[in-house]
Write a structure and sequence with these properties.
The chain is mainly alpha-helical. It has 2 domains: 53 residues; 111 residues, Winged helix-like DNA-binding domain superfamily/Winged helix DNA-binding domain (Arc Repressor Mutant, subunit A, Orthogonal Bundle). It is built from 8 helices and 3 strands, in the order H-H-H-H-H-E-H-H-E-E-H. Strands 1-3-2 form a 3-stranded antiparallel beta sheet. Strand 2 and strand 3 form a beta hairpin. Helix 3 packs antiparallel against helix 8. The protein is flat. The chain starts with a helix and ends in a 6-residue tail after the last helix.
Length: 184
Amino acid sequence: MSVGHTETSLTALQNCACGDRHEPIVGHVQQGAAQAESSAIALQLEGLAQRIRDQRPSISDNAFPSTPHEAIAMHLYQARRAQVDVFGDRDIAFGPCWDMLLDLFIQQSQQRRVSISDSTIAAECPPTTALRWIKVLEARGLVVRRGDEEDLRRTFLELTAFGTERVTQAIATYRNVTGVASKR
């Protein structure tokens, strides 16, 4: 329990006129102790997780693959890790979110607008799941909704400047790690 929380709880106990108010204050002190214990456990778990990450052997850039398939697997592994670093979140770097971001990037590069329903199709998951992920992408500042001025029933989805920057960075990182060059 933190010092400030302890002082607050003790002050509340001292100000108590006893009687029926005693039990709620004791409960407050116990709740504070439980929160402090939970925080301590969370810190211990994070420390253990970091030690496990530190001890896990990484795929070195200097490792020499014994087969072409191993070389490809190493590049893919490194590219996926780099992609997570770009977005800071595995959920966005892969799966439905990544599919939607790539589709938006491609369509916007070709000056095509993408409706919300088109994005849910690009996500290749149930529409309700895609809509939840769109909310996550919006909250992270990667996409924005724009109403259709001609058809008020339709809403378009667009990459923000930040979203375009992140997707471009992820693609460049992938290209650098895998050695894949564009055909243009």
